[in-house]
Amino acid sequence: MFLLCKGRVAKKPYIMPITGKRIYSLEELCYEIYHNIYSVTEEIFVPSLVDWLKNEVGEPVAAKKMEALIRRNNDLKDMVITLLCACDYYKEEEVMEVLEIMKQIADLPPHLKQKRKADNYLRAGHYGQSLACYKELMNGKESERYTPEEYGDLLHNQAIAYFYISSFSEAGRYFKEAYARNKREESLQYYLTIFLMQGKEEEFYTEGLRMKQEKETLDRWKKEFDDSYLSLKDIEVERSFADHCKRDLRVSYA
Fold first, then answer.
1. Cα–Cα distance between 149 and 151 in angstroms, integer?
2. Is the whole-model pTM more than 0.90?
3. Cβ contact 162:177 at 8 Å
4. Which range, 1-15, 132-146, 173-187, is most confident?
5. Calpha distance 161→170 (Å, rounded)
6. Alpha-carbon separation of residue 34 from 75, 76, 243 (angstroms)
7. Helix (H) or strand (E) holding 196
8. Which has more confidence, 57 or 111?
9. φ, ψ for residue 30 (rounded to 5)?
């Protein structure tokens, strides 16, 4: 990816919170925010960003505005729009589209905002932090506000975190619980695929049939597994499967 930068390129990058991505220009920062708007959180807008804008990319006006917004604890959307307007990388209508999305995010109830935070940790590969957030959400007083489908999605994402930091069996248990709530095919498929990853083909079919899946469906899922994973080394199988699951994260924004 190449970005046309009219401003100064920083010698010292700004490190994006959560993801750890290194940003070297104002245009690159705006691009990162614009294309990951649902993942943007208040953690991005901190005093170190003000210093970076002022001293590294030579944007004292933008730095001063951002400093004032941070000091006043302004809404996240105000900070995002101020930053996007600090350079002419995006057209006015594109900025307005982002503003509408930010308004929708700002109107989310607290329990869905917290889910968004946990999902962001998971996307960034911070599995321990995401797992802690999911557990807090499911055991906290706000847990009763989730619909069965939303709660199942929490379990699905928690299963992915467990896959990375714990064991196949732990991940499989939560995929199974997720399916019981959200009835999503991918949660069931991932639960059953765990059996294949453990070399338990017979259990894969027995459990799949018990859960009222057609044998043709199970054959298709097994073929997908065979085609995608069995040609890889064991550690690559694990990573490939987990990354595949992560691409299908269930993130509820409304």
1. 5
2. no
3. no
4. 173-187
5. 10
6. 17, 13, 23
7. helix 185-197
8. 57
9. -65, -40
> What percent of the chain is modeled with pLDDT above 90?
52
Residue 18's pLDDT is what?
Answer: 81
Residue 1: both structure tokens together: 């990816």
22-23/14-15 β-pairing: antiparallel
**DSSP secondary structure, 121-175, as one string:** HHHTT-HHHHHHHHHHHHHSGGGGGS-HHHHHHHHHHHHHHHHHHS-HHHHHHHH
Helix (H, G, I), strand (E, B) or coil at 108: coil
Confidence band, pLDDT 50/70/90 cuts, at residue 107: confident
* CB crowding 91-106: b at 16 or more within 10 Å, else e: eeeebeebeeebeebe
Which amino acid makes up residue 251?
V
Provide mean pLDDT across the span 214-228: 92
Which residues, 6+ apart, have CB-to-CB distance to 49 below 8 Å?
A: 14, 66
- Full DSSP string of 29-95: HHHHHHHTGGG--GGGSSHHHHHHHHHTS--HHHHHHHHHHHHTT--HHHHHHHHHTTSSSS-HHHH
Give the C-alpha separation, 244 to 212, whole Å: 24
pLDDT beyond 80 at 208: yes
Under a CB-based contact definition with an 8 Å cutoff, are residues 54 and 60 in contact?
A: yes
